[in-house]
């Protein structure tokens, strides 16, 4: 025990916030009124703490083996201080890459993708409504002005996407992974497009159906329970958006994802892909157990790729990248806003989840989401993950000479129109 105490004392002392650890025996290390307090009920999780495996400590918190007390920002500052290695610098071996590719193929069948999406997004609509903006936009906001509220920043993001796509009245617009309908409703109501969304979440599908009826947008907005790989028989679209979607596609299926966008986009059309990308060039997930935590409790089957890999497969499909924008700091702000909103309504969140799933599963889910939101906010702040918007076109090949054809489109090849 003395060796354990002598190891813990310097470990806690070097953290950026005051922290204490209470052992299963009841002994305490660190100041009594520390900003972060970890109460261990099982000795197994102590090994993960000493080894800097913060994801494993997080799993122990979710399972109830460890109790954590403190403000979310302080807890995450302590977690970052416990790390012993850079979580994005792992370079996988050939064998690890082979195993990862095989796993990606098996994790992203039509059936498993539907199950994985429903595991996350169908947890509880009322739960998500507690901490998302009124439109339930569950993706990175765009803080044009740092003084914006979350709701204002989400509307700014929706408009930023529509401007980049140069949406015009009457155009057919396809949203791959349309969530609770924020983008398709904004595009239809503000830009006059015919919006077509697809989702694998039954809760989201039913919510959007109700909203279409309430808003009187029948004939202008449509949503389907459909996989992006099952679009046979559907006419190509003028414009395509995909927000927070390719993280669920999987590395092995990314080429097919972009080939589908190419197939479903009219010549000369624009597509915008918005999604989380890896901070490291080689890592498929965050180290120190953080990737395992997210895969187990939040996004089963989720895979992150560096933006260079995403753009490689985008270009290989025949699409031309026109503009790529990194919104990483915006997602840190978004996630802290979500975290703060959830932290302010914990009792209500517990009641909502317990009514649908029972008290103990609700408590586990709530502990997982508290760590997930604040942990991801920290990850975006530190550059462990990023968020890119990639605008591309399907060249129409018209050189207007009738002789030579090439990668041509009506895109202005400047950013001025976006910010006007």
UniProtKB/TrEMBL annotation:
SUPFAM superfamilies: S-adenosyl-L-methionine-dependent methyltransferases. GO terms for biological process: methylation. It holds the Pfam family CMAS. One of its GO terms (molecular function) is methyltransferase activity. Its EC number is 2.1.1.-. It comes from the Bacteria. It is an enzyme of class 2 (transferase). The keyword Iron-sulfur does not apply. Keywords: Lipid metabolism, Methyltransferase, S-adenosyl-L-methionine, Transferase. InterPro entries: CFA/CMAS (IPR050723), CMAS (IPR003333), SAM-dependent_MTases_sf (IPR029063). Belongs to the CFA/CMAS family. PANTHER family: CYCLOPROPANE-FATTY-ACYL-PHOSPHOLIPID SYNTHASE (PTHR43667). This is Class I SAM-dependent methyltransferase. It comes from Comamonas guangdongensis.
């Amino acid at each position: 025990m003395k060796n354990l105490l002598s190891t813990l004392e310097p470990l806690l002392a070097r953290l950026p916030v005051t922290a204490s650890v209470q052992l299963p025996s009841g002994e305490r290390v660190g100041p009594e009124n520390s900003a972060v307090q970890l109460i261990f009920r099982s000795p197994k999780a102590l090994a993960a703490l000493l080894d800097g495996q913060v994801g494993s400590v997080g799993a122990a918190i979710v399972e109830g083996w460890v109790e954590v007390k403190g403000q979310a920002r302080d807890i995450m500052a302590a977690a970052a201080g416990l790390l012993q290695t850079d979580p994005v610098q792992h370079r996988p071996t050939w064998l690890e890459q082979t195993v990862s590719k095989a796993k990606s193929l098996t994790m992203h069948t039509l059936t498993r993708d539907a199950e994985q999406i429903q595991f996350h997004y169908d947890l509880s609509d009322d739960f998500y409504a507690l901490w998302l903006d009124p439109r339930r936009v569950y993706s990175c906001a765009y803080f044009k002005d740092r003084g914006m509220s979350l709701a204002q920043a989400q509307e700014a993001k929706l408009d930023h996407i529509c401007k980049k796509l140069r949406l015009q009245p009457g155009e057919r617009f396809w949203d791959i992974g349309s969530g609770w309908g924020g983008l398709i409703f904004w595009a239809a109501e503000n830009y006059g497009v015919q919006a077509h969304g697809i989702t694998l979440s039954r809760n989201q599908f039913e919510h959007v159906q109700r909203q279409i009826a309430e808003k009187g947008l029948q004939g202008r907005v449509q949503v389907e329970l459909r996989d992006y790989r099952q679009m046979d028989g559907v006419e190509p679209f003028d414009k395509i958006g995909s927000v927070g979607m390719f993280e669920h596609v999987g590395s092995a299926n990314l080429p097919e994802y972009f080939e589908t966008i190419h197939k479903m986009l009219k010549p000369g059309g624009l597509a915008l892909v918005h999604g989380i990308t890896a901070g490291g060039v080689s890592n498929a997930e965050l180290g120190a157990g953080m990737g395992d935590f997210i895969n187990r409790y939040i996004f089963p089957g989720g895979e992150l790729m560096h933006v260079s890999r995403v753009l490689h497969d985008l270009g290989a499909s025949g699409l031309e990248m026109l503009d790529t924008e990194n919104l990483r700091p915006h997602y840190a702000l978004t996630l802290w806003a979500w975290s703060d909103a959830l932290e302010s309504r914990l009792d209500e969140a517990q009641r909502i989840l317990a009514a649908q799933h029972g008290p103990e599963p609700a408590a586990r889910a709530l502990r997982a989401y508290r760590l997930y939101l604040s942990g991801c906010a920290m990850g975006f702040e530190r550059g462990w993950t990023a968020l890119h918007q990639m605008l591309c076109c399907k060249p129409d090949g018209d050189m207007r000479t009738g002789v030579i054809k090439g990668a041509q489109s009506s895109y202005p090849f400047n950013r001025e129109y976006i910010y006007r």
